[in-house]
Amino acid sequence: MQDFQQVINSIHKQLKDEINRGLVANYIPELSHIDVNNFGIHLKLISGENFSVGDSQVPFSIQSISKVLSLSLAFQLQGNALWKRMDVEPSGDPFNQLSLLELENGIPRNPFINSGAIVIADILVSQLKNPKEEFLHFVRDLANDQTITYNPAVAASEKATGYTNYAAAYLLKSYQNLENEVDKVLDFYFYMCSLEMNCEQLTNAFYIFANHGVCQQNKTWLTTSQIKRINAIMLTCGFYDEAGEFAFEVGLPGKSGVGGGIVALLPNNFVISTWSPGLNPRGNSKIGMQALEAFTTKTKLSIF
Ligand SMILES: NC(=O)CC[C@H](N)C(=O)O
């Protein structure tokens, strides 16, 4: 077996002093205080073995990574009916782009751009009695970790400044693709994005995507076919308008968030998470992408 600890140690060492680390997201004021020098990696093999380096135990705002988890819960509850309300095509546009939504009559391109994730939030608000509590329980159970929580200050900060998300939600409403009131749906959406997890917790939560829907506690959460579909959407749409570049450089399905986290996986093999809060111009973690490119190149483990 390869010496995975040595591989991630060397990647961490090589990138930890890189001067150009990208810029911390500041459009959500509460995220702008995060130290750009944080850098952690956690690798979990399908066997359950763990390898960690750097700030892998420090919780951070998972932001758009939560969109994979909300899609999973909505898919579990609604099955294929949810595809009537959104598509599964990459947008090739930034995550908060609105013009496509108008052009395509209120049907979001995919569940990982903001408008698609707002429709998923609407589905969960309709289906669940206490959406915030039940979504949090779902994530905690998936990761087998009851310490995972929301950060209400981050949710409030985004609520106060999230005008583009309000615009997207009103546009969806005008096309009758939002059942609930805009404020109610966005309140849940902002909480969902404010979830805090560390690299290890993320690999635990995403273990099911590498293991046909079955978590480490042997519980089945989604069918093999549903997992296949979610992994396909992660590969084609997981990195906003940089999904092609991520597939080209890294070659794994994955998802990023503006908090600087990335989680990626190789089915039947491993889940890996990185956190480095500096973003490139397209909103993906700069150092995280470089670390994952180095990982799949050094280990020769990618879907290609
Ligand atoms: N890409 C992201 O991580 C964006 C999530 C953020 N909460 C937003 O809606 O803008």
Describe this structure in words.
The protein has 304 residues and is an alpha+beta fold. The chain has helices at 4-15, 66-78, 99-103, 114-127, 131-143, 152-161, 163-174, 182-193, 199-205, 207-210, 224-237, 243-249, 286-299; strands at residues 23-24, 40-45, 50-54, 60-61, 196-197, 254-256, 261-266, 270-275, 278-279. It is built from 13 helices and 9 strands. A 5-stranded antiparallel sheet has the order 3-2-8-7-6, with helices on both faces. It has a two-stranded antiparallel ribbon with strand order 1-9. A hairpin with a 4-residue loop joins strand 6 and strand 7. The longest helix has 14 residues, at 114-127. The model has no long low-confidence stretch (mean pLDDT 96). Glutamine (GLN) is lined by residues 63-64, 95-96, 114, 158, 165, 193, 257-258, 283. Its EC number is 3.5.1.2. This is Glutaminase. Keywords: Acetylation, Hydrolase. Homotetramer.
